[in-house]
Amino acid sequence: TNDNIVLETKQDEIVYLKIVLEKGTGKSKITYRAQPEKAESINEIIEHYNMMVAFFDRLFKQPIEAIKKDTQIKEWNSIKSMKKYFEEAILQYKKLHFVEQEVEITIDPSKLQQDEEECWRDTEELYIILKKKMPIRINTKLTEIKTNDLKINQQKENIKVGTALDVTFIKRKEFYLWGETVEIYTSNLLTNAIVKEIIELENGTTKISYGEEDSRPMFISYKGFKTEKEAENEMKSIMENKEAYVNAKRLGEYLAEE
């Protein structure tokens, strides 16, 4: 127009952007709409979002963080907010792209708006498991075990009511990422299980029922692996690494540290 300079992308771009610059005033109005579902791949989303961050810096001829305070505060905060959105989204999609490559799946971007919160949480958990290789603590509790399918830190004949047990076991765990199922194997350590009852079964195994004490809450910590063999190898030394499991953090605590 005569009074404005308008820069606008196509409506169906991965990132729709419209910038209106007022001639002679230096004022601008920026409108954007992130449309990751229009991408062909997760990596393409990352590439476009990176371009947006670089574009904002280039548009103002300096990093946005260095913009002078005499820029209109409302405009300045709006620009910083937009850049922050793309920077944080890039980190999220990079995690998802790592998981894609690690477990050999392909996420269809057109499905990204489905089950969004749950799928992103699974992505974060898989990233911590497979990339950071950190143990995760969960609140899930068990109430009984049979000595033929789990390992305990004491011989069966030494276990009595009131005994505190450390129980280790392997378990399969499934994650669901936008239509793709990811299965991993976990090495688990159940800590502070207090024996409540011991029952000898007819098939020769022993069933041990247990609970917890208020002063020593029971919890499970686990590490995850792509194959059962890897989980079995971890089990061989799990008690030697007990401290790492006992000090494991919950998923939310790991995320809060980022």
How would you sum up this structure, described in words?
- There is one protein chain.
- The protein is an alpha+beta fold.
- Helices cover 33% and strands 29% of the residues.
- The strands form 2 sheets. Strands 4, 5, 6, 7, 8, 9 and 10 form a 7-stranded antiparallel β-sheet that branches.
- Strand 7 (164-177) and strand 8 form a beta hairpin.
- Helix 1 runs antiparallel to helix 2 (73-103) and helix 2 packs across helix 3.
- The longest helix has 31 residues, at 73-103.
- The chain is elongated.
- The model has no long low-confidence stretch (mean pLDDT 84).
Strand and helix layout:
Elements: E1 4-8, E2 15-22, E3 28-34, H1 42-59, H2 73-103, H3 116-132, E4 136-138, E5 144-146, E6 151-152, E7 164-177, E8 180-200, E9 206-211, E10 219-225, H4 228-236, H5 242-246, H6 251-256
Antiparallel strand pairs: 1-2, 2-3, 4-10, 5-9, 6-7, 7-8, 8-9, 8-10
Helix pairs in contact: 1-2, 2-3
Spell out the helices and strands N to C: EEEHHHEEEEEEEHHH
User: Averaging pLDDT over every residue, what do you get?
Assistant: 84
Proportion in helices? 25-40%
Overall 3D geometry? elongated
Major sheet description? 7 strands, antiparallel
What is the terminal-to-terminal distance? 45 Å
Total helices: the number is 6
Beta-strand residue percentage: 25-35%
Low-confidence stretches: none
Number of strands: 10
Rg, Å, rounded: 26 Å
**Sheet/helix structural class:** alpha+beta
